[in-house]
DNA sequence: CTGTTAGCGCGTTCAG
DNA sequence: CTGAACGCGCTAACAG
């Protein structure tokens, strides 16, 4: 484990010198080119091992023009379990192809997202997997135009061609809302993410469609969109429950809203008149400890790791076959209803 | 937004050609070198904009020898909120220095971790932030020896010099155990991660020390180490509760064990004889919904985002000052006890 | 103010 | 079987 230069890693030439051969021969040995005399090969191998040599991947990718073996992952908030599971799913598939995942956390800021994508492209990532925060996807379209494959997760591409993995947002929301209706609820509130988010609008559509199927129409006063964090959802839910004619059930379009609504309902429980029925709760996204809340809970579940894995597979296959020629693919991950007991 | 070559991004020479200057001049303009005639500058700028040019960061880092602007983050399981928060904290600091985070998820596999670190070094990351899974840290020592700064999070370096950020494991565990003792518990079980993990052993030490302070000695029959996932912890806790002389309280060394133990206690509640007191629960790590479990719960809380941010800051400052010369620093994040009501 | 030369570390091409 | 030359895209150093 000697060092040949101040603090730096050894280079191919260091190995070659030590083995008494040219850099070219060393390169061949290290890439398992058979055209080398066994004796020479051994000398080079020994030298490389002694120096702890590892080829400089930066130089390789520049030379080979093949990209960097890196994939950018663009999400809004890694602390949200939805995104961290997605990240894990993506990474678990990509590592099998020798690819590594670069985190891009945008914190909901569209400008940061634009910069991030541009930077990833400048870094010559082999591809990008993104869950765009807003409706404007031109920065992603630009990446595609420059030859960087993009896979969208949980949102469809708008205005350009790209592979994507979606959740059955409409169907899941419809099923959950229908379940509440089946139980006799007629005034069902809706809590969701900002209207610009695709999943939010699709889930709202599913909710409204289920109401329509039951001969009801969505009541705008019972719909609150725009909550991103649980505490915002708690406030929104509390407001709904304080209405003159409050909803008897709530449907939430994601885990942040469900958790927030749960807290509101629990607080409301204390103030409730005797005999008054508890507000029913349903939501999109399963989450850890959902079974432990002491409240009946209907959740729209799906395999969120699989969402990431599917995105990773789409990108990996796209990289294998090269570029945009093949038509874009869309994968829809199915949902199912889960009931947690009170 | 024209393209000069098939699918590839435009190069500096494409810009130069289009502007009718040499590559060198174009380079100067794009790096805001003042030594350029304003008119020329405008021509180059226009050409770059028209082509959508972005400098190839791979080539730049090779040329400048300054590293890649990437930092490797080595953790065992990104789906664990502890690690995803850490990742977010790290990334939030690093982006401010123009650095990006590369995920390395090892899934507890020491071999995968070795490979991962070697690969990150080969990719010429500027530094590594790691939460090593096992006791063997030679791969990290090797990275340091090759000039790659390493910062450890939540474990101290073993056998080499590196900055690290620790949680007050001993103090937190001691305080939580003392709290249980104050409440009159004398038979307190312990559930923890595998003994090889530093936090696990430190927290066990804190637990044992608190018992000793109360004139008690740790009872090996009440100690279960090795649980990594909640379901394993549930089984271990269930076994403890089924002992002839079961513990009246449990202390868990991390959130996975606390959640697992919670489920065991809840199940046990149903089978409990009337009048028998409920098993008390305390644990290390705060977590979402801890307040909603319907069980009194004492948790050792700390700012887990700050853990990541501190690690990021240590690395960033190390990169600024360059290399290992300065003595290694150790930051300890304090803990506090949080009580959640039943 | 601008262009030429040279080379970061590696691998392809083509001669020895 | 091995080596010398060339270039990936970019920029520091030195011309002009």
From TrEMBL, chains A, B:
Domain of life: Bacteria
Keyword annotations of the record: DNA-binding, Transcription, Transcription regulation
PROSITE patterns: HTH_LACI_1 (PS00356), HTH_LACI_2 (PS50932)
GO molecular function: DNA binding
Domain HTH lacI-type: 10-64
Keyword DNA-binding found: yes
SMART domains, per database record: HTH_LACI
Transcription regulation found in the keyword field: yes
InterPro entries in the record: HTH_LacI, Lambda_DNA-bd_dom_sf, Peripla_BP/Lac1_sug-bd_dom, Peripla_BP_I
Protein's name in the database: LacI family DNA-binding transcriptional regulator
């Amino acid at each position: 484990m000697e060092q040949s230069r101040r603090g730096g890693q050894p280079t191919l030439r260091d190995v070659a010198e030590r083995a008494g051969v040219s850099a070219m021969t060393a390169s061949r040995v290290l890439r398992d080119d058979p055209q080398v005399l066994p004796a020479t090969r051994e000398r080079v191998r020994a030298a490389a091992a002694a120096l702890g040599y590892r080829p400089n991947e930066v130089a390789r990718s520049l030379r080979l023009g093949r990209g960097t073996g890196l994939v950018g992952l663009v999400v809004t908030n890694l602390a949200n379990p939805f995104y961290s599971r997605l990240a894990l799913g993506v990474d678990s598939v990509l590592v099998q192809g020798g690819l590594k995942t670069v985190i891009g956390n945008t914190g909901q800021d569209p400008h940061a997202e634009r910069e991030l994508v541009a930077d990833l492209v400048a870094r010559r990532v082999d591809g990008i997997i993104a869950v765009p925060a807003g409706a404007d996807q031109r920065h992603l379209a630009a990446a595609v135009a420059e030859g960087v494959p993009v896979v969208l997760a949980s949102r469809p591409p708008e205005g350009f061609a790209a592979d994507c993995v979606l959740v059955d947002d409409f169907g899941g929301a419809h099923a959950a809302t229908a379940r509440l209706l089946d139980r006799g609820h007629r005034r069902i509130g809706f809590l969701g993410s900002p209207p610009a988010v695709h999943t939010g609008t699709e889930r709202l559509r599913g909710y409204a469609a289920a109401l329509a199927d039951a001969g009801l129409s969505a009541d705008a006063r019972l719909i609150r969109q725009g909550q991103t964090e649980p505490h915002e959802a708690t406030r929104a839910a509390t407001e709904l429950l304080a209405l003159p004619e409050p909803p008897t059930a709530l449907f939430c379009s994601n885990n942040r809203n469900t958790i927030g609504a749960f807290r509101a309902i629990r607080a409301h429980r204390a103030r409730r008149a005797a005999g008054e029925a508890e507000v029913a709760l349903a939501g999109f996204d399963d989450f850890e400890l959902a079974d432990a809340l002491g409240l009946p809970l209907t959740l729209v579940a799906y395999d969120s790791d699989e969402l990431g894995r599917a995105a990773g597979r789409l990108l990996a296959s796209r990289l294998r076959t090269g570029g945009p020629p093949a038509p874009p693919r869309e994968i829809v991950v199915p949902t199912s209803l889960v009931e947690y007991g009170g």
